[in-house]
Amino acid sequence: MSLVEKRSVTIRGHRTSYSLEKPFYDDLLAISAARDMTLAALVAEVDTQRPREANLSSALRLFVLEQAKRGVRQT
Q1: Any idea where the Ribbon-helix-helix domain is (predicted)?
Q2: How confident is the model at residue 3 (pLDDT cuts 50, 70, 90)?
Q3: Where are the domains of the chain?
Q4: pLDDT, tens digit, for every residue of 33-59?
Q5: Eight-state DSSP code of residue 55
Q6: 47 phi and psi, to 5 degrees?
């Protein structure tokens, strides 16, 4: 089993993919649940805020890290 899993999502009608390690993916799911939004909607939000030169996978990891620093995810 790979440490990184590739997942697909549709953002504004465009199919794309991102690759995340399970802990990042799990935290992303928890953040979306805490915000009462779908995972796809959260990924789309991060996508709109990332610099165009950053890839989506990296932007998602940095987003999860920033949320963890802020203490957003409650275990």
Answers
A1: 5-67
A2: confident
A3: 4-70
A4: 999 999 999 999 999 999 888 899 999
A5: -
A6: -60, -40
62: β partners:
none
Distances (CA, A) of 11 to 1, 25, 30, 53, 69: 27, 17, 20, 17, 27
How far apart, in whole angstroms, are the C-alpha atoms of residue 29 and residue 10?
16
Q: Which amino acid is at 49?
A: Q
Question: Looking at residue 12, what DSSP letter applies?
Answer: T
> Residues for the chain: how many in total?
75
Tokens of 48: 């709109």
Residue for token pair 């779908």 = 38
DSSP bridge partners of 5: 20
Distance, C-alpha 43 to centroid of its chain:
5
Q: What is the DSSP letter of 36?
A: T
